[in-house]
Amino acid sequence: MCPAPLASGELSALLERAKDGEKLPPEAVDEAAATVAVDETTDRDRYTGLHILGVAQARQYRSLLEQYLEDPSDPMLARIAILGLARYWNEPEPYLDYIARAVDGQEWDYLDDVQLAAISIAGDYLRDHDNPELLRTLIGKAEAAPRGTGIRNATLDALARALGLAWPEIARREQDPDYGPKLIAEAAARLPV
Description:
The chain is mainly α. It has helices spanning 8-19, 26-37, 43-55, 62-66, 75-88, 96-104, 113-128, 132-144, 150-162, 167-173, 179-188. Helix content is 64%, strand content 0%. The protein starts with 7 loop residues before the first helix and ends in a 5-residue tail after the last helix.
C-alpha cells in the first residue's frame, strides 16, 4: 500500500522535527516522499517534502531528489535538491559537475537560488578537498561578478571558506576595501601552475 501524501501543516511539523535532530519514523519519511511524488502537490509542499528527505538523511529517495536537479520549472526545488544531496547528506562528490555548472549560473535559475547554494557548497567542499577545476570556477565567478552583488559576496565567502578561514576572520577581512582582489589572489596562488 502506498503511503498517503501529507497536508501542508503536517509537512511543516515533520520538517521541524527533522531539523531538531529527531530520527523520523520510516513511514513519516515515506509519506513525505509520497507528497513530493504526487502531481497535485503544490510547489511549496513539494519543497518542504524534499527538504524533509534531505534533513532526514533519506538516501533511499536519492533518485527522487536527483530528478529535481535539472527541472527548470521551479529553481527553488533544484536548490533544495542539491542542498539535500550535497550538503545535508555530505555527498557532494557525485554532483561536482552539476555544482560547477550551477556556480557559473543557469538561464532558468532566474533568482540565482541554485547558483547561491552551489557557490556555498563548493566553498565548503574545497575547504577539505583539492579540486583545481572547481576552485578555478569559483575564482572566475568572483572575478566576473560585479562588486557589491550577492553573487560576488557569496563567491568571496565561499573562497574564504575554501581557504580555511573561519567566519570571524572573514568578517574582519571584509573591512579591508581590497578584500576581494586580495582573496582572489590568495585563492589563485593555490592553483597548480
